[in-house]
Amino acid sequence: MRWCLLLLALASARGQDTCQSSPEPQYLLFGTKTAYNYVNRNLPNLNPQNIPGCQAKAIWLLNRHGATNPEADELPQLQHLTAFRDNVVKNYNNGYDKEPRMCLGDQSLLARWGWIPRQNLTFAGDLTTNGYMGTQELAQSWVSRYPSLLTDNKHDYLFKFAKDKRSLESFHAFTAGLFRSRPEDLELPQVNDETLVMPDKFCPTWSRDIGDSNETLRQRDIFESKHEWEDMVANISSRLGFTYNIDRSIIKDIYQMCRYNKAWDITQISPWCSAFSREDLRRFEYSEDLETFYKYGYGSETSPKLACPLIKDMMDFFHKHVDANVPQQPVSQILFGEAPALLLLTGALGGRRDDAPLTGDNFHTVPTQNRKWSSSVASPFNGNLAAVLYKCNPNGNFGYKDRHQILFLQNEQTMDLPFCKVGLCEWPDVKVRLGEIADKCNLDFCNGAASISGVVGLSLGLVAFFVRYLF
Known about the structure:
The chain is of the alpha/beta class. The chain has helices at about 1-15, 75-80, 80-95, 105-110, 130-145, 165-180, 195, 205-210, 220-225, 225-240, 250-265, 280-295, 305, 310-325, 340-350, 365-370, 375-380, 425-440, 455-470, and strands spanning about 55-65, 155-160, 190, 330-335, 385-390, 405-410, 415, 425.
């Protein structure tokens, strides 16, 4: 009898692992297409961010846009999922009974799924309704935290963003959350600066040697060539009712649809997520982390240099407030960028650095499972990175050495940086660490020829990186 109960329990646990319609919690971290709510659910109540003995004097804030429609180059493949869905439904209607398989609830959800007509070339890449509202809510959250800085006075602000439609939508949504009014009616101080907020798109040398290089994807490709990845493909194919392995590109399209659905409406279940177990989703997340680590993070010597204009912009802003004897405006400098900007800046600041580099061979190790570098957390939809200047009483009970302190926050949570204490940094330490980066900021290499070009140069660079990282 005990053995029967054990078998039933195991079968139940297995079914729940692949049943999105069950009440069990699902895995909700989807790399750069993670909903903001999934990475900051444990935030305390939105009370003002108080630091004993200190007053907030200025805030510098870099924001990523909210959830978007698929990009133009994604639409054809994702639209084909309608026909693919019909094949999955047919498989189950014909009595498919192999394991693993989807539960009845997920089968029903997938059968009712349909393509949204608005997801077309006209609106490709635009903010969704949820993305627009989420950006408004984010602005209101920052107001709750720093009411003395995010005021109704438009002269307290300077906004910087690109000229593209998505950046303008983000600007409009954020300022609507700040002022409850249309930004064009307010004549808000603003600057268009694509090179600042999209540094990866204006550096041909980086694009050639890092961004568009197959060598950058080597560790990701090693990971996806593992036998366990092939086993995952087989399990996903079986779960969808096929007796053979479906094409990997289709599986990646399904994953893309799964995470788009979860970002568009966090209250709804995505039927496409039922194709994956929790461990499958962890693998897909790690695959993207391997890509972002070597493209925008510590896996590249060049990439952190692209963030130096952002650090210079931040430092120039704070110097104006620290060095002046009278209050300065603006007190809030707010930028709107893309996921690469957040990842590049995270790396340039020294945040989310692990003791060892991520590789295609160490997925199952404890350090990797508990890794700090996470594209889901560092650059979700509506991801943000803020630095707040405080003026403090150095003679207080809290032992501030300098009158000025900087608090770094990522997604409204304290950021762990090597030169700070629980996110709070002495201004002299910030000047030493970040001031040097700002003073030496030079992107002339972006338009120059690499000293060693192509795959050979990048391969040698990766070898040198591993030696430095480990020793």
